[in-house]
Amino acid sequence: xxxxxxxxxQAGLIFYGRPVDKWRFKVDLVIGADxxxxxxxxxxxxxxxxxxxxxxxxxxxxxxxxxxxxxxITWAPVDQFHVRLGRLRIxxxxxxxxxxxxxxxxxxxxxxxxxxxxxDLGGLGEFNLGDGxxxxxxxxxxxxxxxxGSGNIKGVLLTGRMDLNPLGDFEFGESRVEGxxxxxxxGAGLVYNPYNSYDSAGVRDVLVNDxxxxxxLRMAAGGxxxxxxxxxxxxxxxxxxxxxxxxxxxxxxxxxxxxxxxxVIRGGWAGQDLSFxxxxxxxxxxxxxxxxxxxxERPDAIKFTLLYLGEFRxxxxxxxxxxVVRAQVKF
Length: 331
Description:
With 331 residues, the chain is an all-beta fold. It contains 1 helix and 19 strands.
């Protein structure tokens, strides 16, 4: 696939395989998805020519942190249960279970990313009962997004998720280009991440207990898709022994019309450090998705997006406005 926009571009390949019975693998590579500013050079600057440096000048370049979105090996002894091992996204929320190419917007809700983002190393046991009417998962992860032993944080991340779909299997992709019957999904997720932080000498600095929870409601009918989620976090460390609490929620709606146009709208709120010095942020997004190949065999193979983005940091009274122009091609 190709994903091109004014904010950046990325390309990827997804490989599937089943070398033997009950075993399969998946490799999802995305180039350009995880960029960061790497330090390229540092120079001392003598602004007044007196022989002594007055300031330091540095330059940075964009570098690729990782091209791996998912690399997993799956063991599926029966249709109702399988185990995935490797690097994968933690299924904490509804959106974290959706591949980004199936999202209604170019990215997951900002609120979702505040509470948990990226992929991690670990294992996940997944249950599917009643032909998708009940889905559940339990997992054990490294909790740092890094290889085991890397960084100054050592701990473990435990996760659990349940989704109830009483009217039939409800996949987590947000595209409703092909329509479908009325579906309802209710879900909840839990993450517990106890970890120790160590200083540069390798001495334990602080013990942290991090607990996060989410609840979700999804509905779809025809070309309409709606989802809303609420999130909560409580973190306590041994240094201050003061609970740090965050909260957030978002809702989004998309309506696909037969002409191949999909109006979309999303709003979200996040409150950080609510127990002491609260900071509130609101996001507002809206625009149109265009599907020029909506009458073909693969109606979502080509997708153009035009969106407005707004971020409002209410506590700091800082506001930002932007736009997204994007083209997405699957092949």
